[in-house]
Design a protein that fits this description.
Layout (H helix, E strand, L loop, with lengths): L14 E3 L10 E6 L9 H14 L8 E5 L3 H11 L4 E7 L4 H9 L3 E5 L11 H11 L3 E3 L6 H18 L6 E5 L4 H13 L4 E7 L4 H7 L29 E5 L1 H15 L5 H14 L7 E6 L13 H7 L14 H7 L14 H11 L3 E6 L2 E7 H10 L18 E2 L5 H9 L5 E4 L5 E4 L1 H10 L1
Helix pairs in contact: 1-2, 5-6, 8-9, 11-15
């Protein structure tokens, strides 16, 4: 069917199941690929609606200049919607936005004004202040204010939210949303909560953003700088609605960028850093949820805008974010190794056991070391060699409690720890690694377990 223009496309945003990255957790995780919209972001529908509404109200007409501040993606959407209708576009951006975004904006004919990223809200050189000053000093200029425009909230409440509900058959239980202004998460949250109140709406922001403190303590914290783009707030949005938001979690630049890179390698999802942050938060939360949970994650930025940043090994190394891509060997996890073990129950000693009792446990179970556990927590370890050295010095010590002779506890790792991570722990003078399972139980892995897993594969 012929479309009148690129913004008249009404196709649903694709939602795809995450398989490989989520293999270690029970819930289903679904990615909503907002970056496949025409402008590479969820802002495409917002930009079109804002322009159409301003035209209907007589606020703008072709030949005028539309002004806004942007982290890049909203500006690209605005330029795509505006330039084809005969408007000029002037955008104010922080200097941290990627080279690719700046190039795309200039290629479309938008004029770009760059301001320092460290100019915080209220400072004369901040993006918002510069954009507002430009509007006041330019003739025939209109401030679209996409981040704080009421239509941004309305689009997500009336379109995005219903679409998510329909595509999941109403079975969504958790929604993870990168938070910038608060309009998207509040709009979607309002709709989904109206359908089922117990749906969990979780915002994701970088370390240094202000929304977690705002939600938890109802006060603004001092913002700090972060490398991530298209995510995070420096002041409270007027469309921030805490009544429909259950939690705000923070993700480091390091984890967000690397999760984004892993999405491309493992799932062929070519998204940006804010999407990586949202997915990292969802995977982290999913490790503590059951099979009845269905998690939707908003993938709101396009990876092609970050080739010079998060997808550049050189840039990642320069910033200290680089993590070597997992190899096929690294894909073996602690959970995989535990699945190969014939013995599933942990053999352990209690602090009140005597050395004699501990040695008998070792002998009966054919093991050479045991963790010492108190109330579900590993507090130490003991080995045959240690017991032998004790008895050489004092043969009466066999009736002494093991707590007085225990060695360092084994390191503890999660079930999704890779075999390389486990190996590193075992090289640090540890004879075993404890795996903390989701049900609170502990299990022990040794070097021989790792070798068996490698040879088994």
């Amino acid at each position: 069917m012929l479309q009148q223009n690129i913004f008249s496309m009404n196709a649903q945003v694709p939602m795809v199941a995450i398989k490989r990255l989520a293999a270690h957790i029970q819930p289903e995780i679904v990615a909503r690929l907002e970056y496949l919209n025409p402008s590479g972001t969820h802002y495409w529908s917002v930009a079109s609606v804002i322009i159409e509404n301003a035209e209907k109200e007589g606020l703008i007409s072709p030949g005028m200049t539309l002004v806004d501040w942007t982290y890049g993606s909203s500006g690209i959407a605005l330029a795509m919607a505006a330039i084809a209708k005969g408007y000029k576009v002037l955008l104010v951006v922080p200097d941290k936005i990627s080279r690719e975004k700046q190039q795309v904006l200039k290629a479309m004919g938008a004029e770009v004004v760059i301001t320092p990223s460290d100019a915080l809200p209220g400072a004369p050189r901040s993006c918002v202040n510069v954009a507002q000053n430009l509007v006041q000093n330019l003739k025939h200029a209109y401030f679209t204010n996409m981040y704080e425009n009421p239509l941004s909230f309305s689009v997500h409440a009336e379109t995005t939210g219903p679409m998510i509900w329909e595509q999941t058959g109403g079975e969504v239980t958790h929604l993870f949303v990168p938070v910038t202004s608060g309009a998207m998460i509040s709009g979607i949250g309002q709709f989904l909560k109206s359908k089922r109140q117990n749906i969990r709406i979780i915002g994701v922001e970088p370390e240094g953003s202000i929304y977690r403190e705002l939600l938890q303590h109802r006060k603004l914290s001092a913002p700090a700088l972060f490398e991530l783009e298209e995510i995070g707030g420096l002041w409270e949005s007027k469309y921030w609605d805490a009544s429909v938001i259950d939690d705000i979690v923070q993700v480091s630049d390091f984890d967000a960028f690397n999760c984004g890179r892993e999405l491309l390698r493992s799932e062929a999802i070519f998204s940006g850093g804010s999407s990586g942050a949202a997915m990292f938060a969802a995977l982290r939360a999913g490790a503590h949820l059951g099979r009845d949970a269905r998690i939707v994650v908003m993938m709101s930025d396009f990876g092609g805008y970050y080739l010079s940043k998060m997808y550049s090994d050189e840039w990642m190394k320069l910033k200290g974010f680089y993590r070597k891509a997992p190899s096929s060997r690294d894909e073996i996890t602690a959970e995989d190794i535990l699945g190969l073990k014939t013995r599933r129950d942990l053999i352990f000693a209690l602090p009140e056991h005597t050395l004699s009792e501990v040695f008998e446990m070792m002998r009966q179970n054919d093991v050479s070391q045991l963790p010492i556990v108190s109330y579900g927590t590993a507090i130490g370890s003991i080995s045959e060699n240690k017991i032998l050295s004790i008895l050489i010095e004092n043969d009466d010590a066999m009736n002494s409690k093991v707590v007085g002779y225990m060695e360092q506890p084994f390191p503890v790792c999660p079930p999704h720890a890779t075999i390389s991570e486990l190996s590193e722990k075992l090289q640090e003078n540890a004879s075993g690694v404890l795996i903390s399972l989701s049900d609170g139980r502990l299990q022990l892995l040794t070097k021989s377990d790792l070798i068996e897993a490698l040879t088994h594969k």
